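Q: Entry one of two.
A:
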Amino acid sequence: MSTTEPPEGSPTQPFVRLTARELRAARHGFSHHQAQPPHETPPPTRTRRSTLRFLIATLAVVMISGLLAYFGPLAWASWRAYQRVFVTPVPRATVVINEQGTPEVVLLTPNDSTIQLPNWDKKDRISVLLLGIDRREAEDIPRSDTIIIVTIDPLTKDVGMLSIPRDLLVTIPGYGQEKINAAYALGVNSPITGPGLVRATIEYNFGIPIHYYAEVDFEGFVRIVDTVGGVVVDVPAPIKDDEYPGENYNYTRIYFAPGLQRMDGRTALRYVRTRHDDNDFARGYRQQQVLRALREQGLRLDLIRKAPQLVDSLGDTVRTDLSPTQVLALAKLGTEIPQDRIRSYTLLPATTSYWEPGQPFYLIPNWNAIQAILDEMFPPRQGQPRPRVRATAPRIPASSAAPELAEPVKTPLPELIPSPTPEPKPTPSPVTIVTPTPEPTITHPTPTVEATPHPTQEPTPVPTITAGPTPEPSPTPTPS
């Protein structure tokens, strides 16, 4: 037997020195091939694991610190902007008739059972009051130059917009009959607040329940339009205003040519504010027109996803008692409403003008005609209330309840423009004798509600002498 062969009964494989881990594995019943081969890299020790965890934690802290340093001021500004835009709901009031027989407001507690807000889950109709505020640094009391009521029916996808002219004579609870424009100024320094008194005035006179409000001043309107990249507006007719309010209470001239045009914020503000070339009803139409254009621009830009940036740009120029969730819900609902289901309404056919020398200008409401407009604006639907106006006989106030809002009366006398004399038709006669037209007699009419131009005298026909083809003289025609 060769000496190199292993002895009988010995294992055929050479002896291998096992590691401690392999020995422990063998003691626990693991086979030899299940143990880790000796040539594999041993597992990392506890010290190496701790070092790796420390490095990862340090890197995470550095990254978080950098993000906070960059986005922290933005997040803080956004939070402050949300706090300024989404304000606590203004006090709600009910109107009662006192012992003197005049209406006055009574504040309600937030949990009062008479406060009926829409149930968003049940598709109740929602009415929002939009206010455009003229807030100037030199003035302590802001004014509401724009009052628009927007009603939305989430079930039928119908929207109605009603512009209320600032000169409309209404009953302001607690103050008597006055222009509706004065309600905001009278309530701004009272416990009911400016938006609260405007809401109470509308609910008392028009019977429209106002659930929420949103107000924007001129600077906020400019920022909104500029943030969405401007609006495209089709100007229906030329507009020239020589008395548009300029800087330092001066006047400036503005002009808008007819046609389709893109407006930035400042230009759009002038477009919705001017009214001297036409009237307050035309201005209300322009305001609703720009609101529609802003909606279309918002749909194109998908502004729902850019709501935080939009809120940041508005700052303290917008106020609303709608919550952020409700605003997003309304924005989403707006994307589902077809353009032809948004209807505009005006009080032009339901008002008459009133003016006396030295007195303010008023619009006298015809409440029966206003009721017919509201019936069309709020179509009947089961379970939804319909507005009912409170018809009151108009009484022109002897003095303004808000004298600081009075504007100087600059109503000129009616201008009489005589009709132009028609040009004579061309004839072969070399000589034309024109009979002069007598000047019209100017009569200054007594000032009434609306000045009616004095009719002018019809022009006198022009006689002519025509030379005939024969040498005999032609007879001269006699004027008729």
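Q: Entry two of two.
A:
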Amino acid sequence: MSKYTLGCGVVALVLGAAVAGSGCASPGSRGPNLEEAPELEENPEPADELSAAFDELVESLRGVERDIRKMPAFGDEAERVGGYRHVMRSFAKGLEAEVLQDADYPYFRILDWWLREGGDNPDQRYAFSPIRGGETYRVWGELGSATRVEFQIYAGRPWDGTGHSAGFLAFEELRLEDDGSFEVWVSAESREGNWLANPEAATTLFVRHIYGDWTDARTGDVHIDRVGFEGKRRPPETADELARRMRAASVMFATTSRTWPTFVSRRYIGARPKNSVSPPYDTYALGGAKGRWMSGGHFELEDDQALVIRMPQTQAPYQAIQLADLWMASLEHGNQVSSLTTQQSALAPDGAYYYVVSNRDPGHHNWLDAGGLRRGIFMLRWDGVQGAIVSEQYPSAELVPLSQLEERIPGFTRVSEEQREATRRARRHHLQLRSHR
């Protein structure tokens, strides 16, 4: 196949808005006048490593698109749009992580509401940096208005089953200065103060700022340096090095794109009946954070229905719920309320939090807006758990007609549309501060 005979959607994705706006048309529709367009010629020169790597990147896009369209999550229009957004976000992640980042001259890559994937928690700002195992890094920043900050080392990719958690520094172990600032050393040899062992197998440092409440206070930040490389000029990149990075981006993109919808099918939809909730489980053994427990399920709703999730109080310092689509991306959470922490929620007289998942606003304080999705998933989190969550604290779920919500929820706490709008404005403002966007 000629390298110029790409599908219209792939060309637009790779080459950008100039091509995307050129009027690609479906069969039978009136499209651009191809007779007037200059004919593209084959490259007369032999393909070099850069060209070959670029071809592989393009072909991985084509292969992923074919697979995405065959997946169970590729259903109605909203789900199909979500699928293509999932592809584009995964592509952007692959370029950032493998082409742009550098373990010797590191900067953190931020995963926030801009690039949502992997069941990302709206209450967290995720920071990732590649590292070289056994080398020394200095991580510094401030807690800000976050409830917690955690540091974790990955060896490989635990999220797709090809790696494991290789180290963890919990918030309870972190020493903060009086102003909330911190310094963490990541190295092979132990050091005084905050230290995280950097084993030879390490590939990624992962930092989470976790916000129990979304305020307009300073949100904190985090930065990283490889010790001994500060201020040194970065050597020019060779063609072979860039080609290797492009190939790594192809692998990262293809893995991310396929992993998460497959994960949803296996761990959510295939694991239990719709509109039910699983018992909580400890995530640390699966590559998650130490002291983090999770639970969840998948919902399927008609317009006049709501899923009511009852979440009892626990001793966990952080407790929250969120919605995501079938591609494992969090729902819009700035301009709609698709997640809540217990700090942001109304407590019922029976000592539990009742959350209402629906597409129509029921007027309840703890409404989670499904954003027009008929199908999706929900996730519950408990952070800082010491010991275990006992059965009396397990969550439960019930499908309820919207008209019967007040009868089913003790102490139904009503809010007005004006209050809802004020909540959305405050959430959006916090996200702007948190992401510096």
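A: Comment on entry two: Helices lie at 8-15, 17-20, 49-69, 77-100, 239-269, 405-408, 417-435. Residues 1-32 have pLDDT under 50 and may be disordered.
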